[in-house]
Amino acid sequence: MTSASQSPLSPFDFKSHGWNRRDAAHLVRRTQFGASNSDVQQAFDDGPEAAIERLLAEQVESSDFLARDTALHRVAMDSGDIVDLRAWWANRMLYSANPLVEKLALFWHGHFATSNAKVRSVRQMAAQNALFRKHAVGSFRQLLHDVARDVAMLVWLDGNANRRRQPNENFARELFELFSLGVGNYSERDIKEAARAFSGWHLRKGEFWYNSMQHDTGSKTVFNETGNFDGDDLVELCLKQDAAPRFLAKKLLRFFVMPSPPDESVVELATCIRENDFSMRPVLRSLFSSAIFFAPESRHSIIKSPTDFVLGTQRTLEARVNLRESVNLMAQLGQSLFEPPTVEGWKGGRTWINSVTMLGRANFAAELVIGNRFGQIADPAETAARFGWHDSHDAVEYYVELLLSSDVPSASGAIEEYLAQATGTLGRRLRGVVQLLLTLPEFNLV
Questions:
Q1: Taking the domains of the chain in order of start, what are their residue ranges?
Q2: Rounded alpha-carbon distances, angstroms, from residue 434 to 86, 316, 366, 428
């Protein structure tokens, strides 16, 4: 816990605490999908301030990554198959030099949950995804303005049905309830008046179209303010409300820090958001260097999403990945990219875990370690040779730290019992150890 004299958003005291590999692993795992040994080592060598700055600064992508990214994107555009678009995004999540951008793109995808099940356009879903990436660490204010004009969102929430004489309330309602304020911070009259402000915000020929003939130019009263408001005015009115930074702060804390953040932390982060005018980079800098982010109760407190579990495991174990099989498994485990289940996105937390998904996670671990349809992990025997290990002890310690980064008493007993019965080469025995670790309940936490 943070001390009584230290606020949750105060910078974590690395001078007295020090900076160790577990701190580095915690930072990396929360800000990307998985953490290989080299990922953790780089963050540890950089130190906390430099590691956080590297996450927040735009990094140059390699030529190999750009070539593969372009090829996968072209396949998705040509095929019109949403599975191909998922595979393209999974490749970015695994290999981009800007992993925090991809993690935030997923955060914004859940926040502005839009499903291809209704949009039915790979091109439009890809454009929305690019919008999330463009503003990932930029301005939430600008993102909210741009989402209101986004073609996939207009299809998703029936923008063309919002006409001057027959306002459609879908977007106005979700703008208030799910995108900016949260339940209880607006009235039904506010929604009805806001819907009029967005009337005529249509799409035509696959692009945003301001249909002036269908826009209501009359006076509207929203949040006790009156004027000839349009959609942009409504976005600004939302962001003026005290509830707006609180709403965003709580979602950020739940995604990056802990499932049930204390009210004090929400208030402090909301203040930070307001002071920075919804600019995300300084907000995230404060969050990732804060006392609450590195507090003991924050570590290993979040249940991994299917994306984090599948892609994170593959990155951690430096696997060669079958992208299509992996994204299909993620969908089976409850997270179908580009097709969230409702306008509320994915609830996350314990909803990820049930008897079926736990079995699916265990089966994935077994198949990945063997080297099957999901890909092939870096050979444990080659890893042992690279580090000069000749017995299982040092290798086991390496994999326990790599996969858990925490002291798990049950792991030691289970590993000892397994090794007492295991036969075969060191590589074979280590594969068994890795599989065992991947099926521990603690491995489902990040």
A1: 24-56, 98-298, 306-444
A2: 27, 11, 9, 10
Q: Which residues pair with 210 in a beta bridge?
A: 201
Q: Name the token pair of 294.
A: 């590195």
Phi and psi at 438, nearest 5°, equal: -70, -20
pTM value > 0.70 = yes
Question: Residues, the chain, total?
Answer: 446
Burial (0-12, 13-18, 19+ Cβ within 10 Å), 197: buried
Neighbour count for residue 287 (Cβ, 10 Å): 25
Which contacts of 38-43 are long-range, i.e. CB under 8 A and separated by 24 or more positions? 39/315, 40/402
Token pair listed for 126: 């890809």
Paired sense of beta strands 207-210 and 201-204, if any: antiparallel
User: Between helices 323-332 and 82-95, what is the axis angle to 10°?
Assistant: 100
One-letter amino acid for residue 298 of the chain: S
Decide: 245 and 267 in contact? Cβ < 8 Å. no
What is the identity of the amino acid at 246? R
CA distance 175 to 180: 6
- The amino acid that residue 193 corresponds to is E
Distance of CA 205 to the CA centre of its chain: 32
- Look-up: residue for tokens 């820090």? 257
Q: Which residues of the chain have pLDDT under 70?
A: 1-5
Degrees to nearest 5, angle at CA 123 with 120 and 129: 100
Report the pLDDT value the prediction gives residue 391, as an integer from 0 to 100. Answer: 81
397: tokens are 């310690």
DSSP string, 65-107: HHHHHHHHHHHHHHH--HHHHHHHHHHHHHH-S-HHHHHHHHH
Angle (nearest 5°) at CA 279 between 275 and 283: 70
28's tokens:
């990396």
Q: How far apart are CA 98 and CA 358, in angstroms?
A: 30
Enter the tokens of residue 106.
Answer: 């997923």
Q: Are 154 and 114 in contact (CB under 8 A)?
A: no
Q: Does the CA dihedral 209-211-214-217 come out positive or negative?
A: positive
Check residue 392 and give its pLDDT. Answer: 85
The SS3 of residue 200 is: coil
Q: Tell me the C-alpha distance between 270 and 344, whole Å.
A: 21
Tokens 């996939």, located at residue:
152
How many C-beta neighbours within 10 Å does residue 166 have? 10
Question: For residue 1, what pLDDT is reported?
Answer: 47
